[in-house]
Write a structure and sequence with these properties.
The protein has eleven helices and 17 strands. With 393 residues, it is α/β, with parallel strands linked by helices. The protein has two domains: 256 residues, Spore Coat Polysaccharide Biosynthesis Protein SpsA, Chain A; 93 residues, no CATH class. Strand 2, helix 2 and strand 3 form a beta-alpha-beta unit. The protein is globular, with a radius of gyration of 22 Å.
Length: 393
């Protein structure tokens, strides 16, 4: 049973989503205990533990000492699954005006709470905002490649994708999603949906995120994403993580010199991305006005299903038999090549019907460019050296 405290949007409850990973939970709780709460007091901490056969997770939760307010541990008797547990935690906004949701394989920055409070306040009345991300994307999870947003001078950018690696919601933001979910939550995501193809073909039925992304696309809503991350993800083994990965590890913001966050509203941003991590065309118009003459969609990563693109033209990595304009891959982020009109033969603006498949050499060149070689040559040298040494034994 929940013990309710006086709460407002200025004092979001911290809600932990846990299941089987006791060591991961202990690590997350330790980082939360070390965070900065100087301006705040009586902060509620709720740990929601899905049913499992291991008693260790509940023991870690009960043993943890929370010095900054009231702690509540909820151990569910019935299995909720990840989607059910997230829905349960999101529904806590009916008791609290706002919540911060953290899954157990995360670690938080000392500034995560302050950032969450300020972002929730700034965007609370923005109809096109469906949530606040604490995590800053460095990886396009559909193209499996590095993601670098265009710099526009603000502390945040926007993406039409929900964050599951640290997010905050106001009561109104969650309620809007829940009302939509009542009508669409029982309808499986299918091949006709506009979500990325990876979601349709590979994501688990237990995913809450794919429904939230579909909701955002249909309702034209966005998540606010920080330039500097307030959480990082260890990618530990779990029900939906089959192998350990560090692809989702990002640098944490540890200090901030300015007192205020330099947030911007959606309509003023020069860095707005769709559900495929592709920049919205209008963000490039002020740099390259000729782009505004045509109706086009961006596909620089080459992950979109062209049967679902409604625009006549695309700006793409794909090969075209009759490109209108062509651009280089000399700059990162890759949108800069288009914004600064850097001519080349890598990306092209073309009619959708003139597009062919992506050449392998282009995907390899894009990987190397975006990762700035990322030790590829060194890795190859070590692999060759190791192989030669084994052959010599």
């Amino acid at each position: 049973m929940l013990i309710l405290q006086e709460n407002s949007i200025n004092k979001p409850a911290i809600v932990i989503v846990a299941h089987k990973r006791d060591k991961s939970l202990k690590r997350l709780l330790s980082s939360i205990a070390q965070a900065n709460y100087e301006q705040y007091n009586d902060i509620d901490l709720i740990i929601s533990i899905d049913r499992s056969d291991s008693p260790n997770v509940a023991q870690v939760a009960h043993d943890f000492i929370w010095k900054f307010g009231t702690k509540q541990v909820i151990v569910h008797k019935n299995s909720l699954g990840l989607r059910g547990n997230i829905l349960f935690c999101g529904d806590l906004t009916y008791y609290y005006d706002s919540v911060i949701i953290l899954e157990d394989d995360l670690l938080v920055s000392p500034l995560f709470y302050k950032y969450s409070v300020e972002a929730l306040k700034f965007y609370q009345n923005c109809d096109h905002i469906s949530g606040i991300s604490l995590y800053s994307y460095h990886y396009n999870e559909y193209a499996k490649i590095r993601f670098i947003p265009l710099e526009d001078g603000y502390d945040n950018y926007f993406i039409q994708s929900a964050t599951s690696w640290g997010q905050a919601w106001t009561k109104q933001q969650w309620d809007d999603f829940r009302n939509w979910y009542k009508s669409y939550g029982n309808i499986p995501i299918n091949k006709n949906d506009l979500v990325p193809e990876t979601i349709i073909n590979r994501w688990s039925a237990q995913s809450w995120k794919k429904y939230f992304i579909k909701y955002m696309i249909l309702e034209d809503k966005y998540f606010v994403v920080p330039r500097f991350s307030l959480t990082t993800n260890f990618g530990n083994l779990g029900n939906h993580v089959l192998i350990n990965t560090n692809n989702l590890q990002v640098p944490l913001l540890m200090q901030k010199n300015q007192q205020e966050w330099n947030f911007c509203y959606l309509e003023n941003s020069g860095a707005v991305y769709d559900a495929h991590y592709e920049i919205r065309p209008y963000c490039l118009y002020s740099y390259n006005p000729s782009l505004a003459k045509l109706e086009w969609e961006c596909d620089l990563y080459g992950t979109k299903n062209y049967h679902k693109i409604t625009k006549e033209y695309v700006l793409t990595i794909r090969h075209s038999i009759e490109p209108i304009n062509s651009y280089s891959l000399g700059l990162i982020p890759q949108e800069l090549n288009i914004a600064l009109k850097l001519q080349g033969d890598f990306f092209c603006l073309t009619k959708k019907e003139d597009c062919k498949t992506i050449k392998y050499r282009k995907k390899l060149a894009q990987y190397i460019c975006l990762n700035q070689d990322a030790g590829i040559k060194r890795f190859a040298a070590l692999a060759i050296d190791t192989t030669l040494k084994r052959l010599s034994i």
